[in-house]
Each structure stands twice: as C-alpha cells, then as structure tokens.
Specification:
With 216 residues, this protein is mostly helical. It contains 5 helices and 5 strands. It folds into 2 domains: 48 residues; 107 residues, Cytochrome c-like domain (Cytochrome Bc1 Complex, Chain D, domain 2). 41% of the residues lie in helices and 9% in strands. The protein has a 3-stranded antiparallel beta sheet, with no helix packed on it. The chain has a two-stranded antiparallel sheet with strand order 1-2. The chain is elongated and about 105 Å long. The relative contact order is 0.11.
Length: 216
Amino acid sequence: MTEHKPEFEINEKLDANLMDHEYDGIRELDNSLPPWWLYLFYGTILFALVYVVLFFFMGKFSQEDELQAQITRAEQELAEYRAANPISIDENSVTLVSDATSLADGKATYDKLCFPCHLANGGGSVGPNFTDDYWLHGNTINDLYRIIRYGVPAKGMISWESQLSPEQMRNVASFILTEFKGKNVAGGKAPQGDLYAEGGMAAADTTAPEGEVPQQ
C-alpha cells in the first residue's frame, strides 16, 4: 500500500506564517503587505486629510472660483478676438442684404445653429415664432443683429459674437427677415412680445401680461 502524500508541501521556514485554513488544496501565508503598497495607502489617507482641510475649511478648489476664473478667461479671449478682428459691421451700421450669395450663407448658418430652437420653417419651438407679426425685441435688421450678437441669456439665447463673423450675423438676420417675416406658417408658436406694424413701429397690441413692461 503506497503512502498518501499531501498535494502541497510546507516550507518549514515559513511555517510560522502559515494560516490554519485550507480551501481547495490551497494554504495561505499571513505575509506582511509590500512596503510600496503600504506607502501608497498611507499617501491616499494623507491626501484625503489635506484635501478635506483645504476644501471644507479653507475654501480652496471652490466651484464658484473656478467658474469665475473661466468667465474672466473667456472675457479676456473675447477682448483679444475683438482687438484682432475689428468689427466693420455692428447693430447700428448693419443693413439688410438680399443677394443670393449672402442669403445662402445666412440659410446655412440658420440650418446649422438656429433651427433647433426656431424650427426649419421659422415657426418657433423653444425660441419665438419668426413668421408672425409679434416680436420680443424688435423686427428690424438692427434689432435681429443685436440679439444674435449679444444674445438674451435670461431667455436661453446665447451670444453668437465669438462664433460668427459680423458678415455671418448680418446674413442670417437678413435670411430670417427675408424668408420668414410675415409668412404666418401653420402650427407656429403662439405670439410673443409686441405687435409690429410695417416699418418696425410697435403697435398698441402686446402679448405681455397686464402691468408688465413689454420687452424691446
């Protein structure tokens, strides 16, 4: 009869570290963790303590501060852009263009940037309806250029000045007034703002609630 040999051999030198359990023929040694692992673990604890002190007690890494820094940086970049690209057209000097090339450029800009809020037919969705006679901020080329350039952040309309050239802003404003103004498309968004008569003069009719000053 042959003597049964265990499936594992015990190194007597390591016997002091051998733990008293076995699983599936595997024995475990109670060895110390590697120093590099312990140092890394202690380092994470130290980092967490320093971060808690800086963030919660000293006000460092504030999201408000980061936002303000980004705003300041954006304003600096905008100022540099304006200095490098003097504006030849602004809301005071802009005029309506009607040539096919300019209107095609305006349509391309509208289809890319404007239709998600105003729809392809100008009937309005998130943004107002361009096809009726009611306008929130005026209906002249100067009015539209100003809104495109500076935006209306309170209403969700961003400024496009840093993304569009003066010519592109003029062209898309001209496209809107040429393509949509007065069309009154079916299914358009309900009127918003003031009723404008021909020539851009605001009529007495307004959709503003009673007692509220209409937006110009």
